[in-house]
Amino acid sequence: MKFVIDMMGGDNGVETTIGAVKEFLKLHDDVEFFCIGNVESLKPLEGTPRVTIVPSKEVLKMDVDPMEAMHKHEASLNIAMDTYIKEKCDCLVSAGSTGALVSEGVFKIRRLPGIKRPCLVSPFPTVIKGKKFVCADLGANIENTSENLVQFAKITSIFYRLAYNVENPKVYLLNNGTEEEKGNALMKETYQLLKNDSSINFIGNMEAREPLNGECDVLITDGFTGNIFLKSTEGACKAMSNLIKRSFKTNLLTKIGYLFSKKGFKDMSETMDYKSTGGAMLLGVNGLLIKAHGSSDVRTFVSSLKIGYKLAKSDVVNKIKENL
Amino acid sequence: MKFVIDMMGGDNGVETTIGAVKEFLKLHDDVEFFCIGNVESLKPLEGTPRVTIVPSKEVLKMDVDPMEAMHKHEASLNIAMDTYIKEKCDCLVSAGSTGALVSEGVFKIRRLPGIKRPCLVSPFPTVIKGKKFVCADLGANIENTSENLVQFAKITSIFYRLAYNVENPKVYLLNNGTEEEKGNALMKETYQLLKNDSSINFIGNMEAREPLNGECDVLITDGFTGNIFLKSTEGACKAMSNLIKRSFKTNLLTKIGYLFSKKGFKDMSETMDYKSTGGAMLLGVNGLLIKAHGSSDVRTFVSSLKIGYKLAKSDVVNKIKENL
């Protein structure tokens, strides 16, 4: 299996990506890496078996204009895309700019036949142990049509079925109320299209306080709203974790309490830890492109590599193509 | 001070509203209540000092069409509005349909001069003890123009200043990135208007994972996105609380842990408890209308009454009028 890694993307520099590649090599002996980046910075990887360093001269900024990004042929993400094609790789991972990944992905790797827009999807944890749901679009797009949203529902349903072995994934539309007539113009229109599409197991609208309860498999929304949903959830979970940690430090008794309940809390934080599910897939393009969290640390980046490995093994892109 | 209460709105029936009125009467001796509802159901309040029961025959459903609601003259919310005007009340509280409250509010109580659309605002807790921020609009509208959003920023800034004694509240726009050029067409347009309005202390865009960290005072967004932000945050906090409780029940050691750390956890849950901040105010109308949470219990409804009391005492509606 061949992975190509944009070593330069992300906020935390090459130490993170180098650390993650090294760790992942220990876990799997059937993967080889093409590591794209500044040759000087990647020195620690030199001579590592199953690693090919491919030099790049530029790094795209996190807020780069996607159109501008396409002209920076020497940037690590662009060379990663070229390498993906040239070496017939199975997976590309980058923690860099989402906008650039989407535009480069569409431009170089191309969309799947019939798909107008790709979408970013990622699994979310729920309060039900082991149960995850997948939300699309988490921000590959800023504005979407109802036709886009129906396509997201189709490809994400196929993705969910393949990734979680669920025959008929339950699809919900993220909305401001559960009744059929709720929502802005886009959501009202999308509701009707989803309802009348027999290839989608559409259940109805879902309010934003519900998904973590585990009833839904596939949650559909436009890229702007998906971004708000993802980050609100992330922010609230993080705030709660911080408050819990602070609570434990209150006094000697709470510190003792922590010692006694540590194990339970480890379980809890793992259930809700966005770091262990980190990594969104760009669905709808003719390749396996993984967007790792911009602020990835080694552990998060490794879990993005793990997601890529699992999806590449299951040949997800070809299976979606066959099922479309 | 005169309060009018829609006793019939909300999911949990009159026991909740009756319980809340009784409890509130004990806390404040300067308030009298007009309680609107079914006379039979309100029997337990009969003869209570400082309580006038005003009969109503109908109850608006939570999903009532706002236009239809206006024609149901015998509905508890409509009679509450009429009573508010007739008795020159200081505050109206309802846990019923948001849509109906907004349309009735605009139709009967009227908008403040120059204000095109009212907005629902509510305080959110943050990880900084005692610090709250206020978000508008939480769902009085489904779709907004940039002009609406600038008006929300203006009236919510005045509201924040009055409610929290902060001279120049820091205003942020909820967006999918911090850079100036981020967002959909509405957010880009609003950014420019806010930036060029010297009456607003506009700092910039804020991503949805940030507000709970306490940096922002006033968070501006359209009604659809605000609803998603509010409910995502609520859902995530609730999921975390449930997981914490479950963690404590894991085994004997974690149960002992709970006994030791109980106090700290009480602090934490109070910080993040949406029940104790429950109640959004409809800002931009010529009266003090409070929307209590649809699923209010007695405690939540009492806190909505408390918010109403505090805002009525500070004469917030007239002060906003003066400041506009």
What does this structure look like?
2 copies of one chain form a homodimer. In chain A, a hairpin with a 5-residue loop joins strand 10 and strand 11. Chain A has 324 residues and is an alpha/beta fold. In chain A, strands 3-2-1-4-11-10-5-6-9-7-8 form an 11-stranded mixed β-sheet, sandwiched between helices. Chain A is globular and about 60 Å long. Chain A is built from 11 helices and 11 strands. The interface between A and B is large, with 62 and 62 residues.
* Largest two-chain interface: A-B, 62 and 62 residues
**Quaternary state of the chains:** homodimer
What about the largest sheet of chain A? 11 strands, mixed
Report the mean per-residue pLDDT of chain A as an integer: 93
Approximate shape of chain A = globular
Unreliable stretches of chain A, pLDDT < 50, 5 or more residues? none
Number of strands of chain A: 11
Radius of gyration of chain A, in angstroms, nearest whole number: 20 Å
Q: Report how far the terminal alpha carbons of chain A are from each other.
A: 25 Å
Which band does the percent of strand residues of chain A land in? 15-25%
Give the ordered list of helices and strands of chain A: EHEEHHEHEEHEHEEHHHEEHH
Counting DSSP H or I runs of 4 or more residues, the number of helices of chain A is 11
Q: Record the strand order, biggest sheet of chain A.
A: 3-2-1-4-11-10-5-6-9-7-8
Structural class of chain A: alpha/beta
Helix content of chain A: 40-55%
